[in-house]
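question for whoever is on the cluster today: can someone run the full assembly for these? four chains, 326 residues total. i dont have access anymore since they changed the login thing
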Amino acid sequence: MTDEALAFPTARHDHAACIAEALDRAERLCAERGERLTTLRRQVLELVWSGHAPQGAYDLLEQLGQARGRVAPPTVYRALEFLQAQGLIHRIESLNAFIGCPIPEERHSGQFFICRLCGLAAELDVGAIDRAIDREATRLGFTIERRTVELQGLCRACREAQA
Amino acid sequence: MTDEALAFPTARHDHAACIAEALDRAERLCAERGERLTTLRRQVLELVWSGHAPQGAYDLLEQLGQARGRVAPPTVYRALEFLQAQGLIHRIESLNAFIGCPIPEERHSGQFFICRLCGLAAELDVGAIDRAIDREATRLGFTIERRTVELQGLCRACREAQA
DNA sequence: TCGGTCATGTTATAAAATAACATTTGCGCC
DNA sequence: GGCGCAAATGTTATTTTATAACATGACCGA
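^ ran it for u. tokens below:
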């Protein structure tokens, strides 16, 4: 894993390579775990990876319809559920949307920086943030099971474009 | 503000006092700002404060119906929007629900520890967490406008009750 | 008290998610 | 290869959450 995977996506990165790598890693990871990355699940994962902006379930539904004919919500939701369970995607709570995970091999929850203008999101996984949260949890006697850390605002490119 | 306001609510705290204080501060704060805390808004705020568990809009809608007769969704959503704009309540994204803010005078986004068993939530506002996040934002060149930090798990009481 | 603004009421609909049951597919086993 | 089970997908209906658009009412200053 290079640092690149955990930074803000640039306008000119090779996104085809992102998709290819994501699918490849998903294949490998599911194989290792004895899980089935079916055609449907693969298609949904690919659609989630169509960009670095979180995608809503109904957007995916519509796009998926082009590949498969009429598709009902549960079809997409079940695939998303599977992908999430495998750590291949994350759900962005503040957007009701999903984004591909660049480091699915390690279980983690990530911290998401989401630009309200371009819609792009960067996933980080910064130990210092987790640790600061853990300290408070310990103090409270709270056992964390799931973390949601989402920051909305302006990415550098959009802020500079504004000014 | 005592530390008590920013810790896990205990089973035996004087909740009537919580409600009274919250409404009182809301009145004062709105008066200072020249905002109108109407009967409706006050009722909704009171319902949000009916406990320390985040409340869904439709739960509030139903309860509100008992006080006002039939009430339509926009009525509640608009009141919630106002209360949120004034910092009197926070929205919990991971639950689609709302919770009263114990320190509405200072603008902040808070960090929420939410127990999946008893449903209670504690709002904290820990500088170390914000700073750890800020450092990453700076590194990315990202301008944060809105923060969502929500931790789900087990509160001490529920964990101890489990074992 | 007029006129404007803000708040609320009302109706309809959009958007997001899931329940329940039917059907199909993959796969180990004989 | 075919049988039978379990997992995956299809299908229909419904629930839950949220908002758009327009009508009416309340407050407040000139």
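summary bc i know u wont read the tokens: Chain B touches chain A at residues 7-8, 93-94, 111, 113, 115-116, 122, 124, 126, 128-129, 131-133, 135-137, 140-156, 159 (CB under 8 Å). The CA atoms of residues 125 and 132 of chain B lie 13 Å apart.
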